[in-house]
From TrEMBL:
Topology of the protein relative to the lipid bilayer: Multi-pass membrane protein
Protein name (Swiss-Prot/TrEMBL): Peptide MFS transporter
Annotated localization: Cell membrane; Membrane
Transmembrane parts of this sequence: 32-49, 61-81, 93-114, 120-143, 155-174, 180-200, 224-243, 249-270, 282-299, 319-347, 359-380, 386-405, 426-447, 453-474
Amino acid sequence: MSQPETERTQRTFFGHPPVLANLFGVELWERFSFYGMQGILLIYLYYSADRGGLGIDEGTATSIVGAYGGLVYLSTILGAWLADRLFGAERTLFYSAIVVMAGHIALAVIPGLGGVAVGLVMIALGSGGVKANATSLVGTLYAADDDRRDGGFSLFYLGINLGALVGPLLTGLLQKNVGFHYGFGLAAVGMFLGIVQYGAGRRRLSAAAREVPNPLPAEEGRKIALIAGAVLVVVVALLVSGVLPASRFATAVAVVSAIAAIIYFAVILTSKLLTDVERKRVQAFIPLFIASAAFWSLYQQQFTVVTIYSDQRLDRTVFGWQMPVSFVQSINPVMIIVLSGVFAALWTKLGPRQPSTPVKFSLGLSVMGVAFLLFLTMAGGGPNSAPLLGLAGILLVFTIAELLLSPVGLSLSTKLAPDAFRTQMVALFFLSVALGTALSGVLSKFYSTDHETAYFGIIGAVALVLGGAVALGVRPIRRLMSGVH
């Protein structure tokens, strides 16, 4: 009897394999630290020195945030490669979490741009390893035909958003009352708790979590090390020389993400380790990858345009008290927590009758376009003119779009993955997020209160068109998926 079948007769975690609780916990604390820090990062960059910030202009600040967010997801490629070729998913996740904690400590204790550079690079690299491998490990808990799969990923997504809810609330309070660096320090504490929780339960994971699917020969390891060293030298030279200014960081990460995606698809599709069915399934992932990147280029503007909007346009006064800017970042996680259970129950109840993945992607992208068009109802006002309930309503639409695409995309990447590229297919999904997140930083530079009607209108309309294009391609995509729903 297979492991998933055996687990149905044992103690479960809300009807799912019990080890899901352990992965749920480590991701909760990693997201607490990640979103807690990100909730105050942008305003730290562009607030003036007398407000505790660095005084960088808004366009450059949004580029840095977009580039950092893109680098987080771009680093999932490295995290997945380390898991598949050197250490296995479980060990890679554990040591990556330690790197994340070290990055938050650097942000907390190193002043100025030096702390930003060291801290964000470490957090990005570590978070990439955590994200790719935690998701991959969740995928190993289910058989390919287990209808609980999407529901399990939705529960996992609940853990992500519990951390995302509490993180910005606590770091925001510390930032407002004590200072930015105390907020960054709290993020480090959160990641430490995540490491302790995961370390206490990591032995419960199966042997499959520790296996290396495609071990790297020693001679190839030396070549990779030389290439990595050369790339590092080039990147440092570009930054030190000023050839790549901070205002172009997001563009650079977007270009690198796009090139990496092309190379990655080519490597997987030309591999002799793939069967004909596996190759078709990877081909089916290409249009969904593009749709995912478009979705995230809108959704991730929560940390750029929506943050600026909340700081400069939103009426944040509640019963005479002005809430911190970062509190807005907790609205979406509250809605995710409420609705993720609803979506998980819906997909579980519908089982094989639920909409196919391409249909969910089409709906998610289209709903995201509607969310941007809803900003037009509040356009043209001055400071404190946008009602908090109005923005909360728009973020509710963000949430519905997210639940239609994000956990489903994570699940899809494990269902379509060839055996030899199990973790790296998850990394490809995150690479679409990297591209979209970097593009969110690029797009955000065009936002201003003087042109917000055109900004929200054009971007929303383009998203609707792209969502319609995915809908038209549902049948050929499903044929390539070869039986995967």
